[in-house]
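Forwarding the complex inputs:
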Amino acid sequence: MALKHVNAVIVGAGAGGGVAAQQLAAGGLSVVLLERGKWYTASDCRKDDLRNQRTSVLGNNSGPDEERNPRVVVDLKGQERVVLPSQGAYSNNAACVGGGTFTYGAQAWRYQEKDFRMATTYGVPEGSTLRDWPISYAELEPYYERAEYEIGVSGDVSADPFHGPRRQPLPMPPLPVGREHGILKPAAQRLGLHPFDIPMLRNSVPYGGRPPCMQCRWCVGFACEVNAKCGTQNTAIPAALATGNCELRTGCMAREVLTDARGRATGVAYYDADDRLREQTADIVIVSSAAVESARLLLNSKSKMHPAGLGNRYDWVGRNLQGHTYTGAWGLFDFDTYDDIGPGASIAVCDYNHGNPGLIGGAMLANEFIRLPYQFVSAVPGGVPQWGRAHKDFMRQWYRRSIAIQGPTQEIPIAESRVEVDAKVKDFWGLPVARLSGGKHPKTMETSVRMAEKAEAWLKAAGAIRTWPKLAGKGTSGGQHQAGTCRMGDDPRVSVVDKYCRVHDHDNLYVIDGSVHVTNGGFNPVLTIMAIAYYAAERIVKSRKGRGV
Amino acid sequence: MLDDGRYGLALGHVKIHSLRRRRFLRIAGTATACGALVSCGRQNTPWRFLTAAEGRTLAAICEQIVPTDQTPGAAWAGVVNFIDRQLMGPYRRQRDAYRTGLMEIDRASVSKFGKDFASLDAPQQTALLESLTGGAQRFFATAIAHTMQGYYGDPRHGGNRDAVSWRMLGVPVIPIRGRNRYEFPRQGA
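Prediction (whole assembly, two chains):
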């Protein structure tokens, strides 16, 4: 039985797809939202320190299915191996309604003005594909504001002098601060830095019909049991469904985007929850599956007219894969720093995002979320054994007397860091799996080391009696901050989508997620993904007005 | 090359895309596992996967990784129970690694000291673990990671008995916040 034709089919119910579905449905379009994962509640995802999206040694708590979704990863030596979602190299985000927003730490950063024009600000380093965005901070500002107000953000950025101009303050005040905040704030001020309360997609007061955060220790990686964390699963997607114009189908794995003889997208072929092949036709197709899977879907959508996949005429789909190079430092104190007050991360500085002599970009630095005991096991500094009595002593002595500061160093994109589809390995449905390869630009590594030094200096100023850096490897990153694989640009020869997220050469095919980021800022990317979804969806709705929708 | 060792996962196994083939392999895998259990004398072992002798060796290794001092160590905390339980689930791809690794460590112990690993005194055990090379060393790295998970992880998985490590660290054992989704381990689990 053929499925009813709709105005838009969206693949992926995460940050981008969820917002796009809501905006299109509210604009009167009929929408089918396909999600390969399930719609979980907190009751389905126990607070399990060994089985969650952050620590997945016993598996993930919100997808994807461990057995059905392998990937191939090629390391820096060219060795390739099959990896499963719970393994670190997989670059897993999530597969569920809400996507990563269901379990994220929920930091709600706007990129800074310079983050949109990195090439103009710094020049293009050799070996990189660094470019400016085709849109500016100012163009995106109203949509950042919409994301902050419609999804819900708490915090106070008024003490941060580095953020771009904004018309409105954040809609919710910051959460009450914990002990680490009290230790780190005066230290940052003594260093001449500008500390402030991290903006978070987390209720600090009742908002959107949901209660405030209860400040438990189970935050990043976990589903929020009181629904205080604001993701698309408890904001945009329920709102989309409430319009009556949107149908959400879970357990649906997209196989390919279908096109006609003229190259127009006609719909999506997918395997439904019973693994039956279905075709959903639509006027518009929107791919919102996150940087790895969106690229994979376009690359797997091959036809006579598009032998290398859709949008891939100039071989850019899947390139410029980037996440963040997280570095920072640990500090040990001769007094208790642990207070069991979540979420933990609460204070940040943006003094080092730009303006670092000799560096390109930088990172926001913030204290880390509450560490569950197992996460502290590998935190030991050089000289302390990894096992035995001395390791146990270290755990006992320092678990409650330590602070970690870290930051997402902005990566300098390179074409070699990429997503391809593997020639041999198939997933459960027989679809070629994503194949990740490449590394990092030397400037990225250089900046990341310097950011670790800054973190160490902050900890020392706060009274740490011992500090040591947390550094990052040179392998390609992706993970929960994955971005860049369908970059936005005006020139079709060096980009995949135009400034409205529309795939070049296809006037009804869009990519709306982190894939379109030209660069990924020195910040957690989710608020930018949401803002771009508001921006692109508004344009789609407007362009259909007068056509009777 | 494509087998990452840790999971014993070969290309052929993930290329499967027909349900029938998957089911067959799952059944075949279960049959193989049962065969191993039966041949090792299931009645004589308190464990799900490990033999009694393997359990004894593993307990001694775990106790080296997190020894007893003023706080009970890994053996008391039930880390062997934790690992054995995970070998039936999330660690199932490492069953061979355990079978081979435990055998190699006992073999090295016999050739060096004339006794199996669990019968050595603690300094001899430490010396032996520090001297491991090759596959045995890689297995020990896996055992370290798993022991830490069993000792410091949530008691619901069968280790960290009485939340012994959380008490040691000073983490509130009965969380005032977040307890709705908290589950205490079943007795004997």
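Chain A touches chain B through 53 residues (CB under 8 Å).
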